[in-house]
Design a protein that fits this description.
This protein has 210 residues and is α/β, with parallel strands linked by helices. The chain has 2 domains: 78 residues, Methionine synthase domain (Methyltransferase, Methionine Synthase (B12-binding Domains), Chain A, domain 1, Orthogonal Bundle); 124 residues, Cobalamin-binding domain (Rossmann fold). Helix content is 55%, strand content 11%. Helix 8 links the parallel strand 4 and strand 5. Helix 4 packs parallel to helix 5.
């Protein structure tokens, strides 16, 4: 059934995908497993985009399906909404990139794991991240980008945070595409996350929570 959901979602079969999600939730399955399947489907979508098999409309549509899945799953994880927040996290897709699939999943997972999340959206210029850090006092910043040229925008954003005198006050993670340590070094970020739970683990580590 896991592969069925992944394949349906990757093939952009919206209604069939949501039917499977509802069925699995009704059967009492761990909602995190469903989110993980959603992530795997998004990876397939990303690869098809890279091969020019999918284009921007398909990316946007797949993102909408991911949002619908998140809305179905969220009530199952909603108990953490009442706990004291662990800390604040700013997240956004960097300038020039409108990709928000991965960002939305990370935002959602941070939220249900007890963080106060400030999702500033897509195509965000460096100054917008700087302004949000000043406004919220957040100690954790997530920069998302799916396309290769986003690496330059990530680097410019980290430099803007540094120029504003805030670099030693925040930890910065990057994610969204095929990340590795060379890209992390190039951007000047503190760490990279390969998936949503890696981002949650980094945030918890940085705010002093195991």
């Amino acid at each position: 059934m896991s592969n069925e959901l992944i394949n349906l979602m990757a093939n952009l079969k919206e209604q069939e995908t949501l039917t499977i999600v509802r069925r699995r939730l009704d059967a009492g399955e761990d909602p995190l497993l469903i989110l993980d399947d959603s992530r795997k489907a998004m990876e397939i979508v990303g690869k098809r985009f890279a091969k020019n098999e999918y284009f921007i409309p398909e990316l946007i549509y797949s993102g909408e399906i991911a949002k619908e899945i998140a809305e179905l799953v969220k009530p199952k994880l909603a108990k953490v909404q009442d706990i004291n927040r662990l800390g604040k996290v700013i997240i956004g897709t960097v300038s020039g990139d409108i990709h928000d699939i991965g960002k939305n999943i990370v935002s959602f997972m941070l939220d249900v794991n007890g963080f106060e999340v400030y999702d500033i959206g897509v195509d965000q210029v460096p100054q917008n991240f700087v302004d949000k850090i000043k406004q919220t006092g957040s100690r954790v910043v997530g920069l998302s980008g799916f396309l290769t040229f986003a690496f330059d925008a990530m680097r410019e954003t980290v430099e803007a945070v540094k120029a504003a005198g805030l670099r030693d006050k925040v930890k910065i993670m990057i994610g969204g595409g095929q990340m590795n340590d060379d890209i992390r070094k190039y951007t000047g970020a503190d760490a990279y996350g390969m998936d949503a739970m890696a981002g949650v683990a980094l945030a918890k580590k940085w705010v002093g929570t195991k």
